[in-house]
Prior knowledge:
Layout: H1 3-13, H2 15-41, H3 48-90, H4 99-127, H5 129-139, H6 152-178, H7 182-186, H8 199-222, H9 230-260, H10 262-265, H11 274-319, E1 324-328, H12 334-342, E2 347-358, E3 363-364, E4 372-376, H13 377-386, E5 400-404, E6 420-423, E7 426-434, H14 441-445, E8 447-451, H15 453-460, E9 464-473, H16 483-492, E10 497-501, H17 511-554, H18 559-596, H19 601-630
Parallel strand pairs: 4-8, 5-7
Antiparallel strand pairs: 1-9, 1-10, 2-4, 2-9, 3-6, 5-8, 6-7
Amino acid sequence: MSLFKLAYSNFKRSIKNYVSLIISLSFSIFVFFNFQNIAFSGAMDVLKDRNSDYITTIIEVISIVFVIFVFFFIWYATNVFLAQRKKEIGIFTFMGLDNGKIGKMYVIEISLVALLSLIIGIGTGIIFSKLFTMILLALSNISVDVSFKLTLAPFIISISLFIVIFAIMIIKGYINIVKSSVVEMLSASKQNELKVTNGILATIKAIIGMILLIAGYYCALQVGDLTSFMYILYAVVLVIVGIYFLYDGVIPFVIYKLIGNKKYLYQKQRTLWVNNIAFRLKKNYRTYAIVTILMICSVTVLATAFAMKERYDGIAHFRDTYNYTITASKQLDEKQIADEISKTNEVEFSNSYTMLSLNDEDVSSKYTYTANGIVSYSQLKQLAKKANIDFDLPELNDNQVIQLTRLYLIDISDPVSNPTITIKNQEYQIVDETNTSYLGILQENINTYVVNDNVYKQLQTTSNEINIYNYKIADPNNYQASIGYLDSLVESEGGAVGYVALDPLYSDIAWVRVTYSICIFLFIVFILASGSIIFMKVSNEAYEDRERYQILRKMGISDRVLSKSIKNEIRFAYYCPFVLMVITSCFSVQALANTMQTDLFIINVVSALIILVIFYLAYLLSVFAFKQKCLSVYL
């Protein structure tokens, strides 16, 4: 039998072991290919130049992160399978094959995995390219026609990158096999990641791990504004190191304490699986730590995406308070304008007010703005009533103002205690600020302060006053129908009038919605990879446990009891990282919520439930595969 036929025979025989790796890699290639296709096909050009450029840049950055992640995922997966296959391919030395030929056989086998993954990933990417883009835009709530166009660049980039990654792993595995002795090959699957740690050192590790985690959680809760921004770095470092110590010290410490409790150990056949958990944890603590950290990052990324989406929706609603805003240096007839607009659009409501325009030298505050304005309290209250906007701002004294602010995607500015502002050489206390959209789009572009009516009259004598008229129509998508009248109004007034008409389909921050959708796909990729890593580990361990379960069956232990033991052992492998992810993500997501000034509790719960479902399915598959390898062969 030729070397290729022998390797191909091994590949077919072991295809079940490669399934999880092939599925994860194929899906990763599928997502990466479609990201590149979106960037090069011009599918996002419908969002105008600025958004399209932002999205292309974001896709490029995410693609780099994605490739780094896939690189380490393939690195780890090939290491797992190399350890698993070493014992089997090591047996071929007794058939007269030297290490070089065994290494070549391994190269062929992994190359088949890589080739199959690329074919499936690129093939499904081509077939579902348009559907992928449509789903991305649907998640982004962008209603446009998608042109189906495939370019050569995504093929070249995707295939080249993954071939390079696989080539590095294949060469690494080949060199490893060539340099290994027969004894190392036959015992590779039983080599531990960590030597046994007992006594005082284990206790010290447990204490250090708990201290680091608690410190990391504390730092996460301190995140909120610019002054506490460094706490993010501290929290990330402390939690990552703390999780490693948790698996290396705290959890083994607890398990060994349980093993030492004979009353606990000898109940419900726990002796069959508790000791094995301790051994597996000692052997695979790095794997558990990596998976847990990856899951925490996934949940945090998803929460970030939802937070950005929620803030985007808030900004969109902020801007869409009025569809038309007309500014004039003289008084206009509000009702007449509404009647003219009504000829082409149904007007839901309208309001008007005056604003004092201030020069830069008229205002002195902590922050510098390009435009400043003053409105009176009574006018704002009346305006809110007509627009059906809640008005709960406090009454003002002569030396008090309220600041009307805009919504930001991310606001990490430092809070100011007892803020003040100087207007026309007079100092005022800022008693409140609100981002309620009373003024619509103007509130986003003009830094506006509310003063009481007396102060407004005083400032009115020395300031330029602008008349502003707002109109809300029933069908925002039909806003173009009234543009002709507004243009004629501007022309007839000889430059004394201007207007802003809002296109509901266009936004300079539409890239946020697409980023949100991309993050959802990344979340799925990362979680599938996490489940695959555990699945591969459990599958690898099944080979090691065959003899143990054979002996237990010969001792008279029933398959029902052994099956329960298998479930308990595998359940720990999946649910331990899940529980730690849930606990840690509560703090990381809360830190994000503090920064974004929003409530992300529901998102945290939903993401945890999604992971739970995926892990539960992976757990069922692992139990089935484990039983097939450890129990069925001996029936």
